[in-house]
Amino acid sequence: MNRAIQPTIQPLSELHLPLPKRRRLSNGIPITIVKVGSQEVVRLDILFKAGTWCQSQKLQALFTNRMLREGTNKFSAKEIAEKLDFYGAWLELSCGAAYSCITLYSLSRYFPQTLGILESMIKEPIFDKDKLETVKEMNIQQFMVNQDRVDFLAHRRLLNMLLGDTHPYGKLTEKEDYSAITSDLLHEFFNKHFHSNNCHIFLAGDATEANLKEVEKAFGLKPFGAHENKPTECPTPIFTPSKEDRGFIEKEGSVQSAVCLGMPTLMRTHTDYLKFRVVLTILGGYFGSRLVTNIREEKGYTYYIGVDMTHYPFSSFLIIHTECDNEYVKPLIAEIHHEIDRLQQEPISEEELLKVKNYMIGELCRNYESAFAVADAWMFAFTTGVDDDYFQLSLEAIKAVTVAEVQELSQKYLCKENLKEVIAGEKIL
Hints:
It is built from 15 helices and 11 strands. The chain is of the alpha+beta class.
C-alpha cells in the first residue's frame, strides 16, 4: 500500500445495521438483543411506557424516574452509588414524552452484581420523603438558573404557543410545581406504570447467553409490579395552539436575545419526511448550511443558528433557534425569511446538493459506528414505531432527492407565514 496515494472514494450503497434478536422472557417481557462489539461490556436498557405523556400532574413522571436511585428496600442511595462505582458501572435515568428509561452500563464479569442493584431499584424503590426534598431542592435550583437563560425561556414559550396549555408538552412548568410533588404521587405513578406488563428490555454489547440468563433470572421468571394493569396507552392530546403569532419575554440586562421560530411539520410516517430532512439540512441543519453561511459567516449576527425537528406522539414541529445581540434581532429574522424564499424560488445547485448529501451520508455512518450506537438505533426504531428498513430507506432518500424535489418540498412544507416567533431578551426601544 502506497500511503502517498489517496484512496478512491467509494459511494455508500447500503446501510444495513446488524439485525437484533427479538425474544420474550418467561413472564412475557419482550427483550431485544443487539450483539455487537468485542469489548467485555454490556448495556441494559429497561423501558417503561411511563413518560410525561402519562402523568396526571406536572413533573410526576420525571421525579418518579429520578428517585429510583435514591434508595430501595435493600440499598440506600449511598450504597447504590458506592456499589456501582466499585464495580465500574454507570447508571443513567431518562424520561421522555412516552417512555421512562433506566440504563445500566456494566463490565460483563460484574453484570450479575450490578444487575442485582438494578433489580432492587425497579422492583422496590421507597421514594423516601427526605431524599425527595433534597432532589426537589436541587431541581428547583437548576430551574431558577434556567429562568435566567433566554434560550430556555424562548423555547418553552414557543412550545406553549404551538401546543397550547392543555397539551402535555405545552404546559409551562413553574417553581410551585416542584413543591407540589410528594412521595405519594410518585408511588401512585410507579404502581400504575412500572410493571412487567408495561416493559421492554434491550440488551446490547458483547451480550452472551449467560447475560441473557441473568436478565431472565432478575426480571423474567415471574411478573413484577402491578402486572395485572394493561400496558399504558398514550392519550390523544388536545391541541389548542395560541392565536398569537409573536411572543416577547423581557429579560432586563440580557446581553443577547434568544430567537425561536417554529411551526408544525411532517411526522416520521409521512411519505415525504425522509427527503424533507435534506431540505432542512440545506436550510440550517449543519455548520455549512445556508442560515449559518448567511447569518453567521456573512452578516456576523450570531455564532450559530440551527434548524431542528422535534417529535412527540401525534405531532412534529420544525424549530429554528439562535441567539444574537439585541440590535440584530429584526434583521436576523428577515434573513431567515429570505433564505426560505430562496429555497422556494431558486433551484439549488447540483454542487451544493451533492455537498449536503455527502455530509448527511457521512453522518449516517458516524451515527452507527459503535456497538451502543447500533443499540440506540434499534431503540429509536422501537420507540418511534418505524420499520427495520428505516435506516436503509433514509440512505436511499438522501441519495435520490433531486434539485427539483428540494424546491418542490420547500414550497410545499416551508411556509414562513405559519412560523410562530418568540424573542426573549432586553427590550429595544
